[in-house]
Design brief:
By secondary structure, this protein is an alpha/beta fold. Among the domains are: 111 residues, Ubiquitin-like (UB roll) (Roll), CATH 3.10.20; 167 residues, Nucleotidyltransferase, domain 5 (2-Layer Sandwich); 104 residues, no CATH class. The chain contains 17 helices and 29 strands. The strands form 7 sheets. A 6-stranded mixed sheet has the order 14-13-12-15-17-16, with helices on both faces. Strands 28-27-18-19-20-29 form a 6-stranded mixed sheet, sandwiched between helices. It has a 5-stranded mixed sheet with strand order 2-1-7-3-6, covered by helices on one side. The radius of gyration is 27 Å and the shape is globular. The two termini are 22 Å apart. One of its GO terms (molecular function) is iron-sulfur cluster binding.
Length: 681
């Protein structure tokens, strides 16, 4: 990575957040590179440097996973065109016009959120659920006695005394920063004020309004490694009044968690940039949420956050590098309560933040929130709760015993590491069916309800296009290829079928399947199949380790959480061996369970005590240190599994008979079968 760029003729360019990459001759405009890779960058003026819509920025640093050392100096110097545009309309210091900036070395290029016209959908909606309301923040209307020469108490002291007399808050106090404001606010309200009281611990007045005030809001935020979701709740009614989400801008520092830790190892001074990125995204979500609800930031007085351990640390500004290796030490694991102003959260200065506790080094507050919401620890049945993401959290058990672990699935389920993969956005293939006789496919894309063999699809497809394949589509196409006999149980694309269908294409020493013919041809390559096998095997191996430790050979119920889990067909998830065998009637998607857990803690103080007690009872299993992980992983590479039976699945789907690949297919240079290895993260 220390290669002299003056001696090379091309450069590796990675675009974020799409994850698309390619090599380009030096001197290629960044806009042209983006277009060749199918990365949408808007350019109304046709690349003449007039519209300014093609702005990009360079993310600097060493990206070991991608073998890229990226620097702003790897772009051509600021051009006259850019200088004219900046003088006339302004251009942020870290931005370049991609139509004018030329590639002169390896680069990680970030497409700003506002420029991502075709950007990913964020599907972490608030699940409808009644939550008993008992918040820690309370509004109290108080009538205060006017000053009296006979009783020379200070105005703040009389406010506290009135609060105790009228609301029963014994031993209350007023936050120090409010003391200079008390006299003016009392007189402005004619000795009648509304106070916000933080009732946890010592009752504390944290905000004061003159007269009567009846607006109090709280936010619940799920900080995922890929997406961030924010829900604004009316604390007086318990109703969720608005929800919004966005892609996590930290993606430009690494698609998965370990890549971000690796970035910090290579760039020790990079922590502020990661923290600023995630906090900035949350600030934007708060703005949108309060505007959508017609609310005010000053009325937001409580905030609850959940996230995996690395996102938890990065949000708090804590270096997560200790989580990069054994013993995976957390800087802090317990629940936290602190003033929102300590992290610069732009809400009411008296607002409080509550962070749910983490379970273990790689099992975070999001898993704790999901367990709180779905309650596997409360029932008789052995329940498996899986939050599918770049780092899958797994909870297994019942009221007698509860265990948890994480498994490094990587970003393949989010569309990364897949040749035509993308995040969920209009135009992404999300459903696939393949005729087992003709091997002809039909697809459905996000933004269009019709299947590709229906007239409506042909009439309307130009509105969204077919741009790639997202996670749910990847799961289905692998499952359908397996059912149609296109891939063997070992995940090898059967090249002999090229004689049967032109969709089976030779691709060097392996084969690929042509899923879509159009302006952009979409293929499923052997490497794509392998990426999904690696991801699903890692998750399944984690599940098996928990089952081993629990002492069970089957589960009674499976719940798939998270945005991805909510949109995959449970039958296909089981068909490829992502989850163990179970009666399909008892396999369900439960949506954003982590976000639901956060809202429960926002609206009810009892749930905070409940989750804090729960994490002390959960047995933590560190998959990276378990000797049987590799054994389970290798067996799980097969579809659906090399060893474990799937009787419930077999009753619902006719599984293909085992198939032997042609000589040389899926083999290494010396003819031996390649053994896939799990992500060392």
């Amino acid at each position: 990575m220390s290669e002299d760029i003056s001696q090379v003729k091309d450069a590796l360019v990675l675009f974020m957040p799409s994850g698309r990459r390619g090599r380009f001759p030096l001197g290629t405009p960044v806009l042209e590179a983006a277009r060749q890779l199918g990365v949408y960058v808007e350019s109304v003026c046709g690349g003449r440097g007039i519209c300014g819509r093609c702005q990009v920025s360079v993310t600097e640093g060493v990206f070991a996973k991608h073998k890229i050392t990226s620097a702003a100096t790897h772009l051509s110097p600021f051009s006259d065109t850019e200088a004219r545009y900046k003088a006339k309309r302004g251009l942020p210091e870290d931005r370049r016009l991609s139509c004018s900036a030329l590639i002169e070395g390896d680069l990680v290029i970030d497409i700003p959120i506002e420029a991502q016209t075709n950007r990913a959908l964020v599907r972490k909606r608030a699940e409808a659920r009644p939550i008993p309301r008992d918040p820690v923040m309370q509004l109290c209307y108080v009538e205060v006695d006017e000053p009296d020469m006979e009783q020379p108490l200070g105005d703040a002291d009389r406010l506290v005394r009135a609060l105790e007399a009228q609301w029963g808050f014994v031993g209350a106090r007023c936050e120090f920063r409010l003391l200079p404001l008390v006299q003016g606010l009392l007189r402005q309200g004619d000795w009648k004020v509304t106070v916000a009281v933080h009732t946890e611990g010592i009752p504390t007045i944290v905000s004061i309004w003159p007269g009567f005030h009846d607006r109090l809001y709280g936010i619940a935020v799920d900080i995922g490694s890929t997406t961030i979701a924010c829900h604004l709740s009316d604390m007086l009614t318990g109703r969720t009044v608005s929800s919004t989400g966005t892609a996590n801008p930290q993606i430009r520092f690494g698609e998965d968690l370990m890549s971000r830790v690796s970035y910090l190892m290579m760039n020790p001074d990079g922590l502020p940039a990661l923290t600023t990125a995630v906090r900035g995204a949350i600030e934007g979500l708060i703005d949108k949420a309060v505007n959508d609800a017609g609310a005010s930031r000053d009325d937001v007085l409580d905030a609850v956050f959940v996230g995996n351990p690395i996102m938890h640390h990065l949000f708090l500004g804590i270096d997560p590098r200790e989580l990069g290796g054994a013993p995976f030490a957390l800087a802090v694991s317990g629940a936290l309560t602190f003033p929102a102003r300590e992290i610069g959260l732009g809400v009411n200065p008296g607002a409080r933040v509550y962070m749910l506790p983490c379970i273990a080094g790689h099992v975070g507050a999001d898993a704790a929130g999901a367990a709180l919401a779905e309650g596997p620890q409360k029932g008789k049945e052995v329940t498996l709760l899986v939050d599918v993401g770049t780092n899958a959290e797994i909870v297994l058990g019942n009221r007698h015993r509860i265990l948890a672990a994480s498994s490094p699935t990587g970003p393949a389920f989010e569309g990364a590491e897949i040749s035509s993969g993308q995040r969920a956005a209009p135009g992404a293939i999300e459903r696939v069916r393949i005729d087992p006789e003709t091997l002809e496919p039909k697809i459905r894309v996000i933004g269009l309800e019709a299947w590709s063999d229906e007239e409506e699809f042909a009439e309307k497809i130009d509105q969204v296009g077919v741009t790639g394949i997202c996670g749910s589509g990847i799961i289905e196409v692998i499952g359908e290829m397996f059912l149609a006999g296109i891939i063997t149980q070992d995940g090898v694309i059967d090249g002999s079928l090229a004689a049967k269908s032109p969709r089976i294409e030779a691709n060097g020493r392996t084969f690929s399947y042509l899923l879509w013919r159009g302006d952009q041809e979409i293929r499923i390559t052997q490497n794509d199949v392998r990426a999904i096998q690696l991801a699903k095997a890692a998750l399944y191996a984690g599940v098996k380790l928990l089952m081993d430790r629990y002492g069970c050979t089957h589960v009674d119920r499976i719940k798939l959480a998270g945005a991805f889990g909510a949109h995959i067909d449970t039958k296909y998830a089981m068909l490829i061996g992502l989850i163990p065998d179970c009666d399909l009637k008892h396999v369900s998607a439960v949506g954003n369970a982590a976000g639901t857990g956060a809202r429960m803690c926002l609206l009810n103080r009892g749930h905070r005590a409940e989750v804090e007690d729960l994490v002390t009872r959960i047995e933590k299993i560190e998959t990276a240190l378990e000797p049987r992980f590799q054994e389970h992983f290798v067996a799980a590479m097969a579809l659906p599994n090399k060893i474990d039976p799937f009787p419930n699945l077999a009753r619902a789907v006719t599984l293909p008979a085992p198939k032997t690949p042609l000589p040389g297919e899926g083999r290494g240079r010396r003819g031996e079968r390649r053994r896939a290895r799990p992500d060392p993260a």
